[in-house]
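Fold this sequence, please.
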Amino acid sequence: MQLPERKVEPLPAPDRLDSWKEIAAYLNRSERTVRRWEATEELPVHRLQHDKRGSVYAYARELDAWRASRRVVEESADETPARRVHVGWLVGGSLALAAVVVAIVIGLRLQVAGAKVADRGTSNEEAWQAFERARFGDNAGRVQIETGIRYYQQAIQLDPQFARAWAGLATAHMALTWFGERPLADTMTEARRVAEQARRLDPSLGRPWSVLAWVSHYVDWDHKAAERQFRRGIELTPDASMLSWYGDFLTDMGRFDEARSMYKRAQAANPRWLEPPIFAANIFVFTGQPALAIVEQRRLLETEPNYGLGNYFLGLSYLASGDKPKGIELLRKSNEIIGSVPFSLGSLGFALASGGHREEAERLLQELHSRRAREYYPAFAIAQIELGLGDSAAALDWLERAVEERHTGFYLPHVDPVWNAIRSTPRFRSILSRMNLPQS
């Protein structure tokens, strides 16, 4: 088996990290998450006593020790009483009995170690640590995903047979489609290649099937094949991610009742994950009931007020309800949290243009045109702002370029209400036909 030709340099491990941002990047989590860990999980963070602004710093070695201690606690909690062999059993016993007990202890420890390797998918401790650092949280942005890619690549270099690392790398490449600025053809092509390798190494993993389903859905526009692959992924790994991703696909296809059912299953599998119920609430917007979406999304955000995608979709719900100032306020906030990625900028520009901030929208549009002139930038974001400014012809021109690029936004045009103003035009209907999407 051949590894990727690109040489991956190890990530630097500075001894001292001098901000929440650096601490979050080192742990590959959001700043919100590491702040919560300091408050609830005793994350070792120090403060400069003389600084009234509360500047923080941390030592990498202490963070590594904290992370290792959390693994020890989790593994100890998983041990059954039969595995906890007390030294007192050996006292006063015969040598023969002692030998038997020692053999049992050694055997049980070997079983635990073997089970741990089987569960982890690698016996290489350094590869496992890199894998642990790679896994970005539910509220990840571009920085966490790009950092995750580098750590997954390190894990694979350390253990080329580590199928879970290959599967994670495939997911990260796929996520860059929405949270980066690389052409979808590049991100999804790489995701397909890596997912196929993960599937070859471990056919029992469900995640590679779901990544391949997204490739079929977005790149090949073969939605029937995508559905088969999603179902196969859930059959192998019926976890919350697999179920929620299938719900996203069903939403894209306008099969809203089935999507709600899948999101409900995903929420039951992971009640603390906000994405499935937030996305289920989006369906109210798609069916012309934004007020219901607002009620549900506001309720969900009470527990995580800085959840980026939650604020983003709540902003779109307000926009759809006619409350443009509130929609713009939330889209500004979410754009800052998420990291000014194409879908958040496109939506913000559309909202600004349609909400009376025309000059600001035109400046943003010019900025995106300039970026596209220098390097690749997704066409769909430009199309959305042009539509908000009222230029339907330019919006359709750019949307057709977006179709060529295989990247038309967070949701496909078939259901995304941003395109409502041009939905009945022959050119828009032709776009849906090219993408093998229903016309209704």
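The chain has a mean pLDDT of 84. Residues 95-120 form the longest helix (26 residues).
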